[in-house]
Amino acid sequence: MGLGISVQDDPESLHSYGENLSTYPELEINEWEELFINVLGAPVEIERIADEDRQSFLARRERLFKEDLTGKGYEMLGRIWYVFRDVFYAPCEVDKLLEECLELQHKTENKIAFSGLEKRIFACHEALKFKSGIFLACD
Q: What is the pLDDT of residues 3-44, one digit of tens each?
């Protein structure tokens, strides 16, 4: 269980045969946790405010996560704020995602986070080769 990785131009074409290229095994939950919680120290475990509904809680969690990672220089990675939400990177965003992943790959010694980064880096190279975007789909 995790985020499936595919190279495609349009996130709406997820279920269309021939238009998408599955690039690598999915991004596993433990890879997500190691990268975002242990390596980047992102605010994942936040307290729910009294009387806060689920939608408001998730919106606040998303905002805090993205603000934190953007402040650390990882705007593209910050969009993967929750392992149970889909993320699409347009073709024009793939270079920036690749840059962020490569930077972290050189900095981290965490093998599990490194594995997740390798998957994204491979997907970025494939997307650049086909001039396509990347879709991370929750399963």
A: 888 887 766 665 444 455 565 578 999 999 999 999 999 999
**Nearest-10 crossing angle of helices 94-107, 111-130:** 150
pTM listed for this prediction:
0.88
Evaluate whether 120 touches 101 at the Cβ level (below 8 Å).
Answer: yes
- The 2-8 sheet, strands edge to edge: 21-28, 2-8, 133-138, 87-89
| Sequential DSSP letters for 89-105 | E-GGGHHHHHHHHHHHH
d(CA 3, CA 53): 25
The tokens for 105 are 């790959």
How far from 27 is each of 49, 57, 126, 131, CA to CA, in Å? 30, 24, 16, 22
Q: How many residues does the chain have?
A: 139
**Would you state the structure tokens that stand for residue 109, as one six-digit string?**
């010694």
Distance CA 82, CA 29 (A): 10
